[in-house]
Write a structure and sequence with these properties.
CATH superfamily of the largest domain: Type II secretion system (T2SS), domain F
Number of domains: 3
CATH architecture of the largest domain: Up-down Bundle
Order of helices and strands: EEHEHHHHHHHHHHHHHHHH
CATH class of the largest domain: Mainly Alpha
Strand order of the largest sheet: 2-1-3
Number of helices: 17
Helix content: over 70%
Length: about 400
């Protein structure tokens, strides 16, 4: 059944927009009139938003953004409706009417129509891999197979909220230091490049030996004044080159290894990777996905080549009849405490519960470490900026003091 976008007037004369499914434009107008609004324009939607399917990222895909939080809310609502006994198609229709994001609204309308035509929900969701991840689709598929779709969707909402909260804490903790860094850098760059050159010619006209700090300041100022555009071009080229290097297999491996090994940030990145691994694998297993299939999905969402390689080895070992803890324990990226908890979970038959505890532990550790790092980072940045400003002030004042002594 086609889906139409409409512009209409409600009873008070206000303009309303939305989407509606109907057999024809005439039927769509009749449905709108029956709902108490007066259609002004009704047109069939274009093809499904392909930029939100597979394929390269484009400008339109950036504009057609569906936030993870919106997916979690819609998932929670769908789980609630299904748990209350509402049929799947009717539940999807109810959610579509509540969604405010036009892109997500259109996608869910298309998914509803696909389900109404006899397809499974997982099949319909798989058409939008940039909106619904492999974890999401496979857990829905397992939920449909086991007849516990509402429970699986509830767990998916929990998973999305956990991940969204972790990312939110990380971004919130780094927002102020990053802002301070860029503002401080721009202010210092402006001072050295445009303000200092207007002051230093006075010192050069003194025809006397200048203090070392003043000479360094003058040379730095002249360099930035003459070659600031070269610095910007070099920084841009460096960023582009780094981005392209990361897309190569070797470059991606080096970058991922650096993220895990770098001082200070390396331990945090390792804990984030372990929390993502445990949370995703535990949620998949709770949703009824077999262990091998769950590991294959986690491998694709690990976001780190080194962790993915460890999971590949674990899959091969499990297929050979071994347990999960053994191959993971051979990797340096999985601490012994994690291996012990996984082993206990396998022996007791509560692997999903143990993985949830691992994820909770590391998510709390990550949040605490980030808060500690940012609390230390702010005074360090202020100290560094203060020392640079002090150097500039001293470099300017020293020649002035010498001029005063000569006059006396």
């Amino acid at each position: 059944m086609p889906v139409y976008e409409y512009t209409a007037l409600d009873g008070s004369g206000k303009s309303v927009n939305g989407i509606i499914d109907a057999d024809s434009p005439v039927a769509a107008r009749q449905r709108l009139r029956g709902s108490g609004v007066f259609p002004v324009e009704v047109k069939e939607t274009t093809s499904k938003p392909k930029d939100l399917r597979s394929g390269p990222v484009s400008v339109s895909s950036l504009l057609q953004r569906v936030k993870p939080g919106e997916i979690s809310i819609a998932t929670r609502q769908l789980a609630t409706l299904l748990g209350a006994g509402v049929p799947l198609v009717a539940s999807l229709e109810g959610i579509v009417s509540q969604i405010t994001n036009p892109v997500l609204k259109k996608i869910l309308a298309e998914i509803k129509e696909s389900v109404n035509e006899g397809n499974s929900l997982a099949f319909a969701l798989a058409d939008y891999p940039k909106v619904f991840s492999g974890v999401y689709v496979n857990m829905v598929r397992a939920g449909e197979a086991s007849g516990s779709l509402d429970v699986v969707l509830d767990r998916l909402a929990d998973l999305g909220e956990h991940q969204h909260a972790l990312r939110g804490r990380f971004k919130a903790a780094l927002a102020y230091p990053v802002f301070m860094f860029f503002v401080g850098t721009l202010v210092l760059f402006f001072l050295v490049t445009f303000v200092i050159p207007k002051i230093t010619p006075v010192f050069e006209e003194m025809h006397q030996t200048l203090p070392v700090p003043t000479v360094l300041l003058i040379n730095a100022s002249n360099f930035f004044k003459s070659f600031w555009w070269v610095i910007l071009i070099a920084a841009t080229i460096g960023a582009i080159a780094l981005g392209r290097l990361k897309k190569t297999p070797k470059g991606q491996y080096v970058w991922d290894e650096a993220k895990l090994r770098m001082p200070i940030f390396g331990p945090v990145n390792r804990k984030i990777a372990l929390a993502r691994f445990a949370r995703t694998l535990g949620s998949l297993l709770q949703g009824g996905v077999p262990l091998i299939s769950a590991l294959q999905i986690v491998r694709n969402v690990a976001n780190n080549v080194l962790i993915a390689d460890v999971i590949d080895v674990a899959i091969e070992e499990i297929q050979a009849g071994k347990d999960l803890a053994g191959p993971l324990g051979q990797s340096r990226w999985f601490p012994s405490i994690v291996i012990q908890m996984i082993a206990v979970g396998e022996q007791s038959g509560e692997l999903e519960t143990m993985l949830g505890k691992i994820a909770d532990t590391y998510e709390r550790d990550v949040a605490a470490q980030i808060m500690a790092m940012t609390s230390m980072l702010e005074p360090v940045m202020i100290l560094i900026m203060g020392l640079i400003v002090l150097f500039i002030v001293v470099s300017i004042l020293l020649p002035i003091f010498e001029m005063n002594q000569m006059i006396r």
